[in-house]
Model the fold of this input.
Amino acid sequence: MKLQSLCEILTEEFAEKVLSESANATTMKCDLVSGDISGVAFDSREVKEGYVFVAITGIKTDGHLYIPKAVELGASAIICENAELYRLYKEQYKDVLFFLVKNARRALAIVSKCFYENACDKLTIIGITGTKGKTSTSFMISKILEKAGMRCGIIGTTGAYFEDFYLEMNHSTPESRDLHALFAKMLSLGATHIVMEVSSQALMMYRVYGIEFEIGIFTNISPDHIGEGEHSDFNDYLYCKSKLFTMCKKAVINADSDKVQYILDVCNVNDVPVTTYGCENKDVTYRAKGEKFYIDGGMKTHFEIVSESGLYPIEVSVPGKFSVFNALCAASCAMTLGIDIECITKALTNVKVIGRIEPVENPNLKAPVIIDYAHNAMSLESLFTAVKAYNPKRIICVFGCGGNRSKLRRYEMGEISGKYADLSIITADNSRFEELDDIISDILIGMGKTDGKYEIVKDRRDAIYRAIDLAEEGDIVLLAGKGQETYLDVKGIKTHFDEREVVNSYFKR
Done:
């Protein structure tokens, strides 16, 4: 990518957004635009010779403060939105091309898309937004697409996946530069489709700006991510979620949500065709009925899809009521893409969601062992609700809480486990830089509000072994809090710890 192309992209995309002063600077420095761009960075530490550095304003720091560092490391162009610093630095660094824009995050998205040769335009991208269900639904859709002969990647909370490729991530939706790099990587490996989680933060911060989604999916919404550094209130949270439906060709929407009309209005304004699904609302394109939950060589979920074309039985190996919603959503998306219902049915029978009510497969287990990422009160209560539908004799719950996080979360999780579990085994999670004994003491404050029985086993491996020792036929063992994570974070050191391996190692002792 040439610097000349960068000038053209920014001039076209921000015709009224690039300040005239920046445009004049570009004209004056035509001798600088003949070189190549070797990379795009928004962290000055990543800058190398020939990079474009985009100074974005973050929650904790301001990228404009690192412009001198970026220039020192070899940046050939700087994009920024602070007019005062722009004027200061463009006079100070005469051999660097400067752009002043109104929104640097939007500029980062557009420049990144072009640098990675518009890879997103060569892929069929499905975006999922909502408070809950995004991860599970993305795995289900991916499984269906693969069964239909498509090569599908996943980008979301548990990481980025495509066949043998995996990348751990810090955000459900990565920053735009990293997102477009992922698109390019998966495209080069042969991907044709991408299913991705689209968080409200990503929509608010323009991480997906400039991407056209084949289908946008709305699962549900409840208050979350509201507070300092996130959304100012629930209305802002809902508004940001709805922005996905200004960027998609088609929409698949949960009609049981009490905010469905808000999303439908956005779709109507933007002439987006809508497919609806639900369990309670009968006036939908696809409806689920006849849910049954049973244990038969594993925890099974059965329901039927009702549509104008007929009645279709579905069985899913992912437990719980919300797996009915997620599977129905995935099937609705697939049928909107024109995939045959028989293909959908076969795919959902064998689907597995990493770290989300994930059963551990071992024939020696007397009782099902479930791994789940539940690491706050809301998700832990949802997990208990899901497994109670199977009428277990007892629920044994192994859990801890993360260090350097809200104490309120510990009180609440202790109270929830004390209320729903027949036995709680309190243990370590990512204690980080806090003492494990202090974290456990906080959990016990919440536990003390209930009559729940508990044991304390500080070593998480020993805690899991203890739960399997105690489990009898008819019981269910929950391992809550780690999910997809394969490490324990203690005092800044991450040690390998995969609960699947731990459960299987129980039988090799």
DSSP finds 17 helices and 23 strands in the chain. The domain at 119-349 is CATH 3.40.1190.10 (UDP-N-acetylmuramoyl-L-alanine:D-glutamate ligase). The two ends are 57 Å apart (CA to CA). The mean pLDDT is 91.
